[in-house]
Task: inverse folding
């Protein structure tokens, strides 16, 4: 770790769709720099990877230098920025992470869905859905690079399975590994195609058939925001779920939601009623609580994605 002039650093290629949060910058400006992590910098480009809010806070305090540490040199600065911001004090929103996954798919099309999921804090199935609607065959690779660094063949969903089915119809006794190699799919996918054909089922599952037909339909890059009453409806569903109502952990979770979900009117009332000398303290505490909830959401999405993919 060392100290560098702020003017020597390039601003981050940030995954935050809304840009910098000026309230967060002002809050950080009131914190002793020694208590804050150093700004993370990509050495080859001198571009900030993580810490633009901390850098702006030092500027706001009139400082000309900032503490920095260097990130790995062999990765794209944007990918590093996403990785670091997922773990930072001001987490990326779901919209930020979804847009980041779409961009990383363009930067690293050969990466597996699970590898991109591990970078963005999304589930592998969510990344797969983003891949299906945001890329065409011409932009995709015939292999995927997994989290373990190994490359595995893929068949781009329906197309690979269709090739395998054609081969098996022409030569029913062809070994599965030969089918996989010729169709450019994984052996497990080739085996599934063969089993489906023997059972008289379509070699392409319904979800892949639908995606194949609808691939060229335009889709938004980020999920549409939910309507305001939606969280109340979902919370009511959780309240009547026996697996939550009749367990200690479930009741604890419901009490947390009851205490910490704010409607628009309640939030507006708090904003106007908190005394001026308490505002920044309340803001910092709210961000700490929000960070914990964001991390819980990311952990649950990751766990759900891992469950559905196995």
Result:
């Amino acid at each position: 770790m060392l100290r560098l002039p702020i003017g020597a650093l390039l601003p981050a290629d940030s995954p935050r769709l809304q840009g910098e949060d000026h309230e967060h910058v002002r809050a950080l400006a009131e914190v002793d720099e020694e208590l804050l992590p150093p700004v993370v910098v990509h050495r080859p480009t001198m571009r900030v990877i993580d810490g633009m809010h901390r850098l702006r806070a030092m500027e706001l305090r009139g400082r000309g230098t900032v503490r920095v540490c260097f990130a790995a040199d062999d990765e794209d600065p944007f990918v590093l920025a996403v990785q670091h911001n997922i773990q930072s004090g001001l987490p990326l929103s779901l919209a930020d992470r979804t847009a980041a996954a779409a961009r990383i798919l363009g930067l690293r099309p050969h990466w597996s869905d699970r590898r991109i999921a591990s970078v963005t804090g999304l589930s592998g199935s969510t990344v797969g859905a983003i891949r299906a609607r945001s890329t065409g065959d011409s932009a995709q690779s015939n292999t995927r690079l997994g989290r373990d660094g190994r490359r595995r063949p893929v068949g781009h969903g329906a197309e690979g399975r269709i090739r395998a089915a054609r081969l098996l119809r022409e030569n029913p006794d062809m070994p599965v590994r030969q089918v996989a190699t010729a169709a450019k799919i994984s052996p497990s996918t080739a085996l599934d195609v063969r089993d489906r054909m023997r059972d008289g089922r379509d070699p392409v599952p319904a979800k892949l058939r639908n995606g194949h037909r609808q691939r060229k339909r335009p889709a938004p890059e980020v999920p549409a925001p939910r309507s305001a009453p939606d969280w109340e409806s979902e919370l009511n569903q959780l309240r009547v779920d026996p697996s939550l109502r009749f367990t200690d952990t479930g009741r604890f979770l419901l009490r947390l939601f009851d205490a910490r979900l704010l409607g628009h009117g309640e939030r507006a009332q708090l904003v106007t009623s908190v005394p001026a000398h308490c505002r920044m303290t309340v803001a910092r505490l709210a961000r700490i609580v929000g960070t914990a909830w964001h991390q819980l959401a990311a952990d649950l999405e990751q766990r759900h994605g891992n469950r559905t993919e196995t």
